[in-house]
Amino acid sequence: MNASHITKSKSSSSLYLSATNKTLSAKLTLGLVCALAIGGCQPADNESNEASDNKKAATNDGPNQALAPERIQVIETLSGVPMQQLASFDPQEIKQGGDTGISISSAESYSKPSSNLTASRKGSFFIGNAFFRQPWVVAPASTDSRDGLGALFNVAACQSCHIKDGRGHAPMNADDDADSLLIRLAMPATTNEQRQQLQDSLIEKIAHPMYGGQLQDRGIQGVPAEAKVAVQWVDKPITFADGHVETLRAPTFTLDNPGYGTFDEELMLSPRIALPMIGLGLLEQIPDEDIKKQAINPNKNSPNEGISGKFNWVMDPQTGKKALGRFGWKAGQTKLITQNQSAFNEDMGLTSNIRPHESCMPMQTACVNAVTGADEQGNDKPPVEVNDEVAKFVEFYTRNLAVPHRRRADDKQVLAGKKRFYDMGCQSCHTPRYQLPKTDDDHFEQHGQVIYPYTDLLLHDMGDDLADRTVAGKLPPRDAQVEFLANSYEWRTPALWGIGLARTVDPQATFLHDGRARTLMEAVLWHGGEAKKQQQQVLKLDKQGRDELNAFLKSL
Question: How far apart are CA 530 and CA 390, in angstroms?
């Protein structure tokens, strides 16, 4: 389940638990990396003239020259320190997650509680961990607190998507399962009323009348699955200026064996892998205004021409009011509690007080009539399968998964790569640092922390190559909203902290929203749209430049 892209009922969606999620000067999408910086370092004496020329062509005079003045001001205001300090070695940045962070570099790097969690609060963390990891079962069952799976679902446990609390991966071939990847669905608006509802964020999307807003590829006994997810890969070589070749892989996703009728050709498909679970409670504490002030209209005369983040304005299912979205690949969820319960609902077919209805479409009669595991709650609340107590334990767990400390942050090669990152202006989308406030809630571990997530939590247009496709394989219209205000081309900038340990946590982990990138460099090279200029500059990097940039990213 992706704590970042799920949704509650078929008609709304934003998976996250399974949901747990853009690039630099441009709309970065996956968690990988701002598309890269060049320049900065003087060429070695034995470096070729061509390599030296390539560096000069891609070099700016410094991080302040790569961004528009207004963007520099915003970043420095949010961080509380000058840009030059951010771009150099900062001992405080070793603790990316502030005092919540941990010094573990192993397969367990994403699965530990906040280091400042008191003994009296650790019990709630471990209870939440149990509900996150252990599978739910079909009702009726003797395990009354964990029954009610389905009737349509993707996985039986949150951990099935977020392997060791990390990111998911795309299926490698036709025989591989899609446990840590799901397919979101949306139809284009066909009436003025629908268009207005989408523009006003009154609805998340136009759901398919039979298949809803998320494909569920499993069903309990007697309930047909909606379809099987298949993917084909095509190699796409790309050549650097020095002749080095990276082989990217381009996916084509298809839906086989439809269980409820033929798919409409205009149905929009959005494959999304599970996002890592670390640091989510810290991201939740970033004030709305700090996110909004970063959505600056691009200045055609500025160094970062073409970069324009926007925030997603969504309907909060808990309050029924519009609010700022910050979680998920499209920033379609407002808070961890709603993201988690949406994931329970769409990924696992479980109801809760925030998502009280089964994730069946009305015409899916076998699903509608299936036995549920819902229990009475009293107080005029509807029967649900995930009660408030369980939901709060899971929320506490997802809020307090610690961010691992950086490694080799003061290494010469890492610092050279960091300079390239900043000189290129990657921080235009990957905002490095925030100072969190102390709020009136009980999120004590997160209060007042100084964090380095490298994200603006905004949506950016990543171009045609990374855009979703329709069932027929065509690019959707740019004015077709698929998740509140987000279209098929826009992705939320993912946080980069911990990304260097992704493959340590799970060797199968992949990058970008659909898992097409097997390495961080592949993810960078897929950047287009607002980040196309940076991608072109990255291609001018020689081996030294590529190694430096990789070293910096892997240190995060």
Answer: 42
Is 34:427 a contact under the CB 8 Å cutoff? yes
CA gyration radius for the chain?
22
Identify the CA nearest to 305 among candidates 499, 31, 92, 67.
67
Amino acid at 144: D
CA distance 324 to 332: 9
**CA distance linking residue 517 with residue 465, whole number of Å:** 13
Residue stretches of the chain with pLDDT short of 70: 1-65, 296-306
Q: Which stretches of 270-425 are DSSP H helices? A: 280-284, 288-292, 336-348, 365-368, 388-399, 412-424
Strands 490-492 and 459-461: antiparallel
Sheet holding 268-273, edge to edge: 181-186, 268-273, 469-470
| Three-state SS at 495 | coil
Cα–Cα distance, 526 to 34 (Å, whole number): 11
Q: Shortest CA distance to 328 belongs to which of 16, 7, 8?
A: 16
Q: What pLDDT, on the 0 to 100 scale, is given for residue 411?
A: 98
Q: What is the 3-state secondary structure (H, E, C) of 443-477?
A: CHHHCCCEECCCCCCCEEECCCCCCCEECCCCCCC
First to last CA, the chain: 25
Please tell me the predicted confidence (pLDDT) of residue 303. Answer: 52
Tokens of 307: 């970069």
pLDDT recorded at residue 298: 52
The pTM score is: 0.88
Nearest to 18 by CA among 232, 243, 213, 276: 276
Amino acid 292: pLDDT: 96
Burial class (CB in 10 A: 0-12, 13-18, 19+), 135: middle
- pLDDT reported for residue 43: 34
Q: What is the model's pLDDT at position 380? A: 86
Whole-number pLDDT of residue 62: 61
Please report how many Cα atoms fall inside a 13 Å half-sphere around the Cα of residue 347, on the Cβ side: 38
Q: What is the pLDDT of residue 522?
A: 98
At 79, the amino acid letter reads S
Q: Which run of H or of E encompasses 130?
A: helix 119-133
- For residue 538, what are its two tokens? 């990255």
Structure tokens at 388: 């408030």
Identify which of 125, 124, 104, 121 has the alpha carbon closest to the alpha carbon of residue 113: 125
DSSP symbol at 427: G
Task: Tell me the helices (H) and strands (E) count for the chain, helix number first.
Answer: 16, 17
Q: What is the pLDDT of residue 11?
A: 38
d(CA 331, CA 458): 7
Q: For the beta carbon of residue 195, count every other beta carbon within 10 angstroms.
A: 16
Q: Give dist(CA 38, CA 475) in Å, integer.
A: 32
Distance from C-alpha of 551 to C-alpha of 556, rounded to nearest angstrom: 9
Please give the pLDDT value at position 65: 67
Q: In this structure, what token pair is assigned to residue 432?
A: 């490095």
Environment class of 262 (CB within 10 Å of its CB; exposed 0-12, middle 13-18, buried 19+): exposed
Q: What interhelical angle do 336-348 and 388-399 show, nearest 10? A: 110
Asked whether 18 and 5 are in contact (CB, 8 A), the reply is yes
Rounded distance between C-alpha atoms, residue 273 and residue 500, angstroms: 18
Bond before 69 cis per omega within 30 degrees: no
